[in-house]
Design goal:
The structure is a single chain. The chain is built from 10 helices and 15 strands. The protein has 337 residues and is α+β, with helices and mostly antiparallel strands. It has 2 domains: 243 residues, Aminopeptidase; 63 residues, Barwin-like endoglucanases. It has a 15-stranded mixed β-sheet with strand order 8-5-4-9-10-7-6-3-2-1-13-12-15-11-14, sandwiched between helices. Strand 12 and strand 13 form a beta hairpin. Helix 1 packs across helix 2.
């Protein structure tokens, strides 16, 4: 019975191993033991409500008590860019026409932007390849949204997620090679590591402020704009099913798309319901996300359930996984849109 739960400081070694397996391109999950230990301490304070909502970092893990171990991690940051701007490129298109020459050109340009500063971020989603079976991926990704639905007051009105951008088989980013390297004079992985350590000031210091016309880039770099890394395509699809969408913002390093949504418009807030737990018998029903409603010991599983029913019937294994009792309040959402 896989379960998503709040991460604790005892999960450090497991999360460190997951971070080491991620590979390049995920800025928010680096294999740095000290940084991860500090992050877990912040997560504990965030779930306890002892830090300001904008400073919070809610970290979750996917655990299987039967097979043992932790196979995935995911997070929500309360807000980004509060202490320094959070940069992206915004894609714009302008039309240039010459009536005399009878020519019309549509020109795409990239504009340095920190429009998403202050928004909440879905981040650090990683599921180990050995765990990519059944409902594990959907449970890990979507359960975070039930936490948002239960505690919307903890988050900004806008929520976003940066998708990992395209890299070739050698791990090179064609977007970075054309756009970043000429100004930063460092490899993609070096810049990515600097951001992972929390240093974003160098972006402001080194990136030109003028628009960057994509016609001047190489073909490979242009093709990478807004393109998702193949390994991240399933994660993007799941988020789009939940109401996030691409609105013309891309990652400043690898050109990957940024998905965003107004929190109030997301499926988890619109369609989830709070029902009371019922101790069996479990009747046939479509799979649903079922989550506890507590903040410090948030837990979520997939079980048969109908958000429109009077209650949610659970067997003893489900009750144990959620650590709940009959009569406890649970938030329920159909697993698929």
């Amino acid at each position: 019975m896989p379960v998503v739960r709040t991460a604790t400081e005892a999960d450090l070694d497991a999360i460190l191993a997951l971070a080491a397996a991620v590979g390049p391109g995920m800025t928010t999950l680096k294999p740095d033991a000290a940084a991860l230990a500090a992050r877990l301490a912040l997560a504990a304070a965030s779930f306890a409500g002892t830090v300001a909502p904008g400073e919070a970092d809610y970290l979750f893990v996917l655990e299987d008590p039967v097979r043992g171990g932790v196979g995935g991690v995911a997070a929500i940051k309360g807000a980004v860019g509060l202490h320094e701007p959070f940069y992206n490129y915004r894609i714009a298109t302008s039309v240039h026409a010459s009536p005399n020459a009878k020519l019309v050109n549509r020109v795409q340009s990239l504009h340095l932007s920190h429009d998403l500063s202050g928004a909440s971020e879905l981040c650090s989603l990683y599921l180990h390849p050995d765990w990519r079976t059944g409902i594990n991926g959907r449970l890990l990704s979507k359960s975070r949204l039930l936490f948002v639905a239960q505690f919307p007051e903890l988050f900004a009105p806008k929520l976003f997620a940066e998708m990992r951008g395209f890299q070739d088989e050698a791990g090179r980013s064609p977007f970075w090679d054309s756009v970043g390297r000429p100004f930063f004079r460092m490899d993609f992985h070096e810049a990515d590591d600097l951001c992972g350590q929390g240093d974003r000031l160098f972006i402001e210091q080194l990136v030109p402020r003028l628009p960057l016309y994509t016609h001047l880039l190489g073909e490979a770099a242009r093709a990478a704009i807004g393109t998702t890394h193949p390994a991240t395509v399933p994660a993007r699809r799941m988020l789009e099913q939940e109401g996030l969408h691409f609105d013309g913002y891309i990652d400043i390093f690898d050109g990957g798309p940024v998905l965003q949504a107004n929190v109030r418009d997301m499926r988890a807030l619109r369609d989830s319901r709070v029902l009371l737990a019922v101790d069996g018998p479990v009747r046939p029903a479509a799979p649903a996300l079922v989550a506890t409603t507590g903040r410090q010991d948030f837990r979520a599983i997939v079980a048969p359930g109908d958000p429109l029913a009077a209650g949610v019937a659970l067997d003893h294994a489900d009750m144990a996984a959620l650590r709940c009792r009959p009569g406890d309040a649970l938030r329920v959402l159909a697993l698929s849109a």
